[in-house]
User: Fold Aspartate carbamoyltransferase from Solirubrum puertoriconensis.
Amino acid sequence: MARKDLLDIASLHREEIEFLLDQSTSFKEVFTQSVKKVPALEGKSVLMLFYEPSTRTHTSFEVAAKRLSAEVTNFDVAQSSITKGESVRETIETLQAMRTDYIVVRHGRSGLPGMIARQTKASVINAGDGAHAHPTQALLDAFTIKEKFPDPTGKKVLIIGDILHSRVARSTSTLLQKLGVQVAYLGPGSLVPKYGPASIRRFTDYDAAMAWAPDFVYLLRVQMERQDVQFFPSLREYHRLYGITNTRLEEIRQRGLYLMHPGPVNRGVELCDAVMDYERCLINNQVENGIAVRMAVLDWLTPGGEAPRPEPTFGRSAAELSHLIV
Assistant:
């Protein structure tokens, strides 16, 4: 089942998704023990190639790789020849000469990780490309939901915010639907695209969306840096119409709904401060689960042009993995 690259969710079969989520469970059980390292990628190298700022995703991948005993190199784009006019292709040729095994790439241009994957034998993982895809975020979201509902079929997830510019919304909604989850979008009409799967409900009114009776409310970060025009009057107005205010949080608490957010959060925009103390807020769970999911992905992928690793760890239970702890 192993692939060379992970570039999107759309190309994954449900069996592959279920496999990765099962392996994420095993890795989470391992690294929550007192000793957190396994030698699954010992002797392998992971290159972090981030053309956009990132804290959570970058750190999560780095921690995941190190817990698999891989060597991690951070490619400093700001200090590289890229700033002197070097093309992405020239950069990849340089990186290929370094014989790296895995490249984790984030770029503002949709499709660029795929281009890199075609030019290198290294396994390429898309850590977010433009408004296109963010596959590991979708996997960790699904993993977090499955922790609450092992069979999420028929559950409802309401995604609120800037759908138009959100790679998270695209990837997560695609994956959830593959698992039988119902998905709906809520946001300003200018930020909720009318095109896309007919199976996804679209709302522009908060009360109407909540009448749909979701089990999870998934808040997206308002990405002002991706908006080349003004899509709503002000951030204060956005919070009033679509944010989780103190009043709405109390209603959510009474209904027992779960809250999620890919981070980083904009307090006073997507949510009020009290959300972080809400007992069914899963934002910190998502951060922890991101490490397990990315460990599973790194362990699953097989760089092109090399023989499969001896004694592979994928497809094995936590009990089987535990003897590998170092």
About this structure: The longest strand covers residues 123-129.
